[in-house]
Amino acid sequence: MQGLTPLDEARKVVLEATTPLGLEKIPILDALGRVLGEDIVAERDNPPWDNSAMDGFAVRWEDIKQEHAIAKPVTLKVIEDVPAGKTPTQTVGPGQAIRIMTGAPIPKGADTVIKVEDTEHTRDSVKIFKPEARGANIRPQGEDVKKGDCIIATGTRIRPAEAGMLAILAKSFVFVYQRPRVAILSTGDELADLDERFSEDKIINSNSYGLAAAVQEAGGVPILLGIAKDQPAALKEKISHGLNADILVLSGGVSMGDYDFTKAVFKDLGAEMNFWKLAIRPGQPLAFGKIQGKLAFGLPGNPVSSMVTFEQLVRPAILKMGGHRSYGRPIVQAIFQEKFSKKPDRRHFLRGILTREDGVFKVRTTGDQGSGILTSMVKANCLIDVPAEVERLNPGDTVSVQLLSGEMWLREEDVPQTTTSGRPSCC
Q1: 196 contact partners, CB below 8 Å, separation of at least 6
Q2: 198: which residues sit within 8 A by CB, 6+ positions away?
Q3: How far apart are CA 180 and CA 214, in angstroms?
Q4: Sign of the CA dihedral 53, 58, 60, 65?
Q5: Over the stretch 89-112, which tens digit does the pLDDT of each residue have?
């Protein structure tokens, strides 16, 4: 369709115009979800020494290697107790053992640990009824981490596991990519803010709050600029304030109506615009470019259009600025459960409900797909991606589905029911 930019082309343009921000040093407790800006190299082994994987007795394998220990248990003399956090002071010699707790260093002379449950013991002696292989129940030095190895690479998103590893490596502070600051502005004389008294001819400015939440969820820092009236001077003033941020996101005012001044104001501010219309639905009127070197997005005013276009273009830019290496939502294939038809002109994103039945993903729409019906997004856990050339979908067709969360879910009915004994109720 002439004048409309395909989504894939638009996304490429946006990402090519986006560069990651600089680094900042923060405590690891503040680093969850952030992107690491340095290679984390181990400065020592972990474990730092051979240690016991069990509560038991450290022994010499030569003393307990007989084949019929149950009939003829081996008795050894206990010469020391070593709890976790203590270092052995004795060396295990022939016929000797040291009582040892999980995590304690292996004493000199010992090469095997016998589990406490495989013994009978007193304060001074231990009978061993079950032989073990040489080296059993010992965690060797460096089993987890070896000194000099790069354990976590630059560009890694920090999850709880990485936070724990940073602690093991004694990294209380780390360098991470800065969070993009995103200025959000809504336009329109018809809008009123939450704490503002308004008459029945006004509507609540929901876009600013929905977009701010989307910015936070993507790892950015939202900056609410409020509402700009449908006057070029007022719009120019608000936009100028937004240029102090890394990204400007404006909703409304990008259509061709008499009161849509965004295009003129952008031009007056020296904008270098890449496109003004997108070949998708919802979300055709969409502007992108740079104003004074800052990324500027003009999103549609309808709430659903605003959120869908944010997902497709603004969110990837925020992720790239924040140091992420991948910018898309997870995609799965699902079985469509309804009938749907459209013109073969624009790519459609239907709001959908994805479920899993007998291991198969199935998807249906949330109902009415109007671009002003925000409940279609509230009910949705995915977007159904219908290519531009597709004219109709029928029940049973396979479709691509874009998850609106990186998390998968497990329904209660998918979990085996258990009895008080811990066994599945079917057993």
Answers
A1: none
A2: 192, 204
A3: 13
A4: negative
A5: 999 999 999 999 999 999 999 999
